[in-house]
């Protein structure tokens, strides 16, 4: 089993869109920590939301750099059931490194909330009350770097292609 880089941006976008949670790593005065968050995604940026106070918000005010992970798949696989080092979890993973922009404009906040809800239900139109929009903290993560890998992939050899 191999680890392969995923280069196709369409496949990367499909992995992100298939996930319901992303894991956001921030650094709080040199101490990193990770939070699971809901998100929106438009292909160029990742939309996050939270309260406008607390550890996440305060940390990002000081250091707007983040790393975001999405992982899809948890199937256990092995090459030899008796050899521990041959075990793998078959999955696909995307990493984004980016910079947070805080969104304060009311209409932009609504647009970001719509993008977030579209991640979970693209069929429905949602309404947002003015107090909800005003009180939510919206962070747009501009993607500086995006990478993806597939773990536990079958090794493709000239003789294995004939059998499939």
Automatic annotation (TrEMBL):
UniProt superkingdom: Bacteria
UniProt xrefs under InterPro entries: Pyridox_Oxase-rel, Split_barrel_FMN-bd
Pfam families associated with the record: Pyridox_ox_2
Record-linked PANTHER family: 5-NITROIMIDAZOLE ANTIBIOTICS RESISTANCE PROTEIN, NIMA-FAMILY-RELATED PROTEIN-RELATED, FLAVIN-NUCLEOTIDE-BINDING PROTEIN
Protein name: Nitroimidazol reductase NimA-like FMN-containing flavoprotein (Pyridoxamine 5'-phosphate oxidase superfamily)
Organism: Mangrovibacterium marinum
